[in-house]
Design a protein that fits this description.
The complex is a heterodimer of chains A (about 300) and B (about 850). In chain A, about 25% of the residues lie in helices and about 15% in strands. Chain A has eight helices and ten strands. In chain A, the strands form four sheets. Chain A has a four-stranded mixed β-sheet with strand order 8-1-10-9. A two-stranded antiparallel sheet of chain A has the order 2-3. Chain A has a two-stranded antiparallel sheet with strand order 4-5. Chain A is globular and about 80 Å long. The relative contact order of chain A is 0.20. Chain B has about 850 residues and is α+β, with helices and mostly antiparallel strands. In chain B, about 25% of the residues lie in helices and about 15% in strands. In chain B, the strands form 13 sheets. In chain B, strands 25-27-26-32-24-30 form a six-stranded mixed β-sheet. Chain B is globular and about 75 Å long. The interface between A and B is large, with 53 and 62 residues.
């Protein structure tokens, strides 16, 4: 087992693979071109044969299948049977256009015309952000570190994979994930999450979601190339005045050592339901063990000292 | 476009990445709006006022592409002296007959030229029908045309098209746009500037539209308004320009080219009428143009007859022209369904449609279905059209009783697109072959198998008949090779059908171009515009060379009709002398000897720019070297339509059939005066006023497909959008007491439907003129039309709400703008629904 936190160039090598292992691959999800079509969600479920939530082939069964009350997002979040989730974020933001010009039309804005059902007078406009979330395939993956059965592994491609035939459903990985990604599947009990289509990677294919994405919002490839691409895209957007644009999970110095699946966002991560400063939950494990060991030694020494006293 | 065409929308995103400005004009804020540079909310049904405002902006600010307009459009043409505009006649054009609600279109023509038919038919009624038929020809070209119209190339003559346009649109000011559409002038001007800044020698702009433009009682005129604007701006026939129709299904373009329409033959040749064209020669004389490619209609039609009737078609029997059915009236969809309800139609095939929930006023559709002798439904799933007799809404309300419905229903399971070979023709006229990936399960069969087997059985039944009416069936060629698949199904070869469509020489070798077709019976071909798809004996539609290995036009991906040409009228990308307007926007040009360039030239290859034809009546040979619009009789783009349309030569703003406000531009007119209406107790129209105070517009979401026949049985789509919903603004929610995710229901004179309320800031109330000098707020409700009672995800059908009122040119219904009321809670059920609707109609004064 390798290191638990801090910058790490090659998590695959760190996990014990030989030096000639395949390069690390990942996702770069550019939310600025996401159109919210959910093709990634459907392609993922089709390829990985994941069940549709709340729907069986025999019928919806009364009120099982219902709107989530969240507009166009009826998925809600990632889970044991959902490895891709498109978030829809509706915002009111300050209007970008110039203030309406008063053309002196006597028929407009009559005194007293404002009432219930009035059109909006405030200078705001609607922004609808869309973003396809997925397992981050962290450089330091706490889920993997805490797995007692060895079901969660680092693959030869540098991704994080649950081997469901070994998983015993203990659930330790679930609170360990700083992003809340991995989850047990109801009725099954074992933990599931994005595999980055491990079976496709082995055959030299791109993951199903990236293949289905019509606007190349989901980009798949060697992680170092994706990072360079993302830096260039960010610079372009910023030069066009998109000041809110930022990369999330790209930085190898962050709390998880950088993500294997990182994002270009147009607003704060919290807006998309992402933690602003994720830290691998096992980061403090070595110092915890050191503290525990020190405490144990202290206890042992004290007890030992007591016995020494008795002999006297 | 991002909602309904997400795959095609990748190119919009690509253009945006390269710096294009994307503007989205829509009553609703959709996924397209989310990624557009600007979303312009508009009152549903007012687009002609908006586009007319843009036309006026171009004309009043000298922003048209002057050389292009003078040389390539009909701006200089002089119109007849007795033409009167809407400005003269209180919102009507000259020729209106209030008795029939239709126009005599003769006064709209050019002076000194005859753009209508030949002189043979003077009977008024026939002349009207003929005009109608000619409107259909314009689906591929222009109305036929004879003579040489008078021009004023200075564009100053008061009756020249340019001056008529200027006068017609003079009142379409930004302030008028605000009054009618609810668009603030600064927003309008932002759009106008973006459009005109990007339309010149160096730059082009494109319009994309879908049924949001066509599903109106003035639908055709919406597209005409865009055509006028693009003509003025020089954006037709040039790369990056155009008006792009996004079709509603995967191959709707294909089903217009090889039509499922009652009044067309393949390739936009009109269907002959009873008692008019008695023989082939007179049909051709009456319908073919004298100039341009329509001048060769005889070769297309004879080749079609040879494809259908083979050796039986000879010069001696007019190539079996008499075997073709004859039209004796309007047999379009809605009149046919109304005739069903009257018991006048015995049988009905419903293939790949679901009219019981998918067609406007679906109750009226079900009434028709219930009055048939037999009904064949072929579909992937047990759709509502196949089960209306068992559990339809009228069974629930007690208005129909299963035992009383005499219709014998045959449900035949169909193979889907992954289970059969064939082509899709997309909006770009691109034919793309798809290969069967898996065998169809169980009894599912392709449509090709069904029709082939049905034809074989019908032919067998009449094989020994001596009745002359059976001759067409007996003479029909029906000998396609079959391919037996691994599950033992003998599928007719789709490849062989495509070969037949492409056409052959007498020796069986494939035609490579429709110019090879002959009228002497030596060639055959099932659809002249598709000729070339099997050129060189190769299925050109199956080519899949990736775009990254080709230039931008990617001629080796699939095959586009006609002649694998990717941009129509591309001669217009060069100036009259044959030089590109600019290096940046070059496409085809004259190299001194012939037309050449990056696309297949849409022009006779060796007709020099300076060529002046000696004859005006020699088909393609009569095209002048500076007339790029080769399918038009005068070779020009029409800013004014002297023929071919039934409701006006220039688009004028008319309100929808149901509107909450008067027509601010033409107060004496409300809706399109030439629209088709069908008032009846089951098709009552909402009056304007307090009882139906809101506007609703139907729409699609990405997660579902049309009326749900393909998507409501697909679990992984249903979980993404599991229920029928109604989209409202927070302001309307406050006004009507609606709460997010609670039930609400929408009411019209026809029906009431329920759904989950989605309250969203994306829905914007608009402030428009109220017709009395004041203003009022218009709330617009979004109603998706994917749901029905069957399937895994169920809900009420939006089409229950709609009335039937049609565009007069193409008989399309108005689904995108109508009035309604909305209330919290579920709608009444069972017989209570009937009483509830009757009460609502009484309150609105529609019933005693």
């Amino acid at each position: 087992m390798g290191s638990l936190s801090g910058p790490l160039d090659d998590p695959t090598r760190d996990a014990g693979y030989p030096a000639d292992h395949p390069g690390r691959v990942g996702f770069f999800t550019d939310t600025s071109v996401c159109i919210g079509c959910k093709a990634c969600e459907v392609a993922c479920k089709e390829w990985n044969a994941l069940p549709a939530d709340g729907v069986s082939d025999r019928g919806a069964g009364g009120d099982v299948l219902g709107m989530a009350g969240m507009g166009y997002d009826n998925t809600g979040g990632l889970g044991g049977s959902t490895y891709r989730h498109v978030a829809f974020v509706e915002q009111r933001v300050p209007a970008s256009r110039s203030a309406p010009t008063d053309l002196g039309m006597p028929s407009m804005d009559l005194p007293g015309a404002t009432q219930s059902g009035e059109h909006r007078a405030d200078a705001t406009e609607v922004r609808w952000l869309m973003s396809s979330d997925v397992c981050k395939h962290c450089t330091h993956a706490a889920c993997l570190d805490v797995c007692p059965t060895g079901s969660l592994i680092r693959t030869e491609h540098g991704t994080v994979l649950v081997q469901s035939d070994i998983c015993n459903g203990c659930g330790y990985c679930i609170p360990a994930c700083p992003y809340g990604v991995i989850d047990q599947r109801p009725g099954d009990g074992r933990a599931f999450k994005c595999t980055m289509c491990q079976d496709r990677l082995g055959a030299g294919m791109a993951p199903a979601c990236a293949t289905a994405c019509p606007t190349e919002s989901i980009r798949f490839g060697p992680l170092d190339e994706l990072r360079a691409e993302a830096d260039a895209r960010l610079a372009t957007l910023q030069s066009h005045g998109v000041t809110g644009a930022r990369l999330y999970g790209r930085d190898p110095d962050d709390g998880v050592g950088g993500d294997g699946a990182f994002f270009l966002l147009l607003d704060e991560p919290e807006v998309y339901g992402l933690p602003p400063d994720p830290v691998v939950t096992t980061r403090d494990l070595p110092s915890m063990w050191r503290h525990a060991a020190a405490a144990a030694l202290a206890v042992a020494a004290t007890v030992g000292a007591a016995f020494v006293g008795v002999r006297r | 476009m991002a909602e309904a065409h997400p795959v095609g929308f990748q190119w919009v995103m690509e253009a945006k990445r390269r710096g294009a400005t994307v503007i989205h004009v829509d009553p609703r804020f959709t996924r397209t709006s989310a990624v557009a540079d600007l979303h312009v909310p508009i009152r549903a049904g007012t687009d002609i006022a908006f586009l007319g405002g843009l036309i006026r902006y171009v004309l009043e600010n000298d922003l048209w592409f002057d050389e292009y307009v003078r040389a390539y459009t009909n701006a200089p043409m002089i119109v007849r002296e007795d033409f009167r505009d809407t400005e003269d006649l209180d919102g009507l054009f000259s020729g209106y007959d209030p008795e029939t609600g239709s126009y005599d279109v003769h006064t709209w023509q050019y002076a000194d030229a005859d753009v209508e038919a030949s002189a043979g038919f003077r009977d008024e009624q026939r002349a009207m029908a003929q005009e109608h038929e000619r409107g259909e020809i314009a689906g591929s070209g222009g109305a036929p045309f004879t003579g040489t119209p008078t021009r004023d190339d200075t564009l100053e003559h008061p009756r020249c098209v340019f001056q008529l346009l200027r006068r017609h649109y003079a009142r379409y000011t930004p302030e008028m746009v605000q009054q009618v559409c609810g668009i603030e002038p600064d927003t309008f001007l932002r759009v106008a500037r973006a459009l005109t800044d990007n339309s010149n020698r160096e730059r082009t702009s494109a319009f994309c539209y879908a049924v949001g433009w066509t599903h109106h009682t003035v639908g055709v005129q919406y597209i005409r308004a865009a055509s006028v604007l693009q003509g003025l701006l020089g954006n037709i026939g040039r790369p990056g320009g155009g008006i792009l129709a996004l079709r509603g299904h995967a191959s709707i373009q294909g089903s217009t080219d090889i039509p499922t329409l009652y009044d067309l033959l393949p390739g936009y040749i009109p269907m002959p009428h009873a008692h008019r064209e008695q023989d082939l020669a007179s049909f051709v004389v009456n319908n073919a143009g004298e100039k341009g490619y329509w001048g060769h209609m005889d070769t297309y039609l004879v080749s079609l007859l040879k494809a259908w009737f083979g050796d039986a078609a000879t010069r001696g029997n007019d190539f079996c022209f008499d075997h073709l059915p004859r039209l004796d009236g309007d047999h379009s969809s809605f009149p046919t369904v109304m005739a069903q309800a009257r018991g006048e139609v015995p049988g009905y095939f419903v293939i790949g449609e679901n009219p019981a929930v998918g067609t406007a006023n679906s109750r009226q559709q079900r009434r028709g279905l219930a009055n048939l002798e037999w009904l064949v439904v072929r579909d992937l799933n047990m759709i509502e059209t196949a089960t209306f007799w068992q559990d339809g809404p009228e069974i629930a309300t007690g208005e129909m009783v299963t035992e009383d419905i005499g219709t014998e229903v045959f449900f035949l399971p169909a193979a889907n697109h992954t289970e059969k070979d064939g082509t899709f023709t997309n909006t770009q006229r691109l034919l793309q072959w798809h290969h069967k990936a898996v065998e169809p399960p169980g009894d599912c069969r392709s449509d090709l198998w069904f029709y082939y087997e049905l034809g074989k059985r019908l032919k067998a039944r009449v094989a020994s008949s001596t009745d002359p009416r059976d001759r067409p069936l007996q003479d029909l060629t029906w000998d396609y090779p079959v391919e037996v698949g691994p599950t033992g199904i003998a599928e007719p070869s789709a490849d062989a059908v495509l070969r037949e469509i492409n056409g052959r020489h007498a020796d069986g070798t494939p035609l490579s171009s429709y110019t090879e077709m002959r009228a002497d019976g030596s060639t055959s071909g099932g659809c002249w515009i598709y000729t070339g798809v099997y050129a060189d004996g190769v299925n050109q539609s199956a080519r899949r060379r990736p775009g990254r290995e080709q230039d931008l036009l990617a001629h080796e991906w699939g095959w586009a009709w006609p002649a694998n040409r990717r941009v129509l009228y591309n001669r217009a990308s060069a100036d009259p002398d044959g030089k590109p307007w600019s290096e940046r926007k070059k496409l085809v040009w004259w190299d001194g000897e012939r037309w050449t360039g990056d696309d297949v030239p849409d022009f006779p290859a060796t007709t020099a720019p300076g060529h002046v034809p000696e004859s005006q009546t020699a088909g393609a040979a009569s095209i002048a070297g500076n007339e790029p619009f080769v399918m038009q009789g005068d070779g020009r783009a029409w800013l004014y339509a002297p023929a071919g349309l039934l409701d006006g030569p220039m688009p004028a703003h008319y309100e929808p059939q149901e509107s909450p406000v008067p027509n601010a531009l033409y107060p004496a007119q409300g809706a399109n005066p030439a629209r088709q209406q069908f008032p009846s107790p089951e098709n009552t129209y909402n009056p304007s006023g307090e009882h139906f105070p809101y506007v609703f517009t139907t729409f699609r979401v990405t997660e579902h497909h049309t009326a749900g026949g393909m998507s409501r049985w697909t679990p992984r789509l249903n979980e993404l959008f599991p229920e029928m919903f109604l989209e409202v603004s927070p302001e309307l929610a406050a006004e009507r007491g609606l709460r997010n995710n609670d039930w609400g229901h929408v009411v019209t004179a026809r029906s009431a439907i329920e759904g989950r309320i989605v309250v969203t800031d994306r829905a914007t109330p608009l402030r428009v003129g109220d017709g009395n000098g004041g203003t009022r707020v218009i709330h617009q409700i979004g109603v998706p039309w994917h749901w029905g009672p069957n399937g895994l995800s169920t809900g009420d059908a939006a089409n229950e709400l709609l009335s039937v009122a049609l565009d007069p040119n193409v008989h399309i219904m108005e689904t995108k703008a109508a009035t309604c009321d909305i209330r919290p809670g579920r709608r009444p059920r069972g017989p209570a629904l009937v009483r509830y609707l009757a009460d609502r109609r009484r309150a609105a004064g529609l019933e005693e």
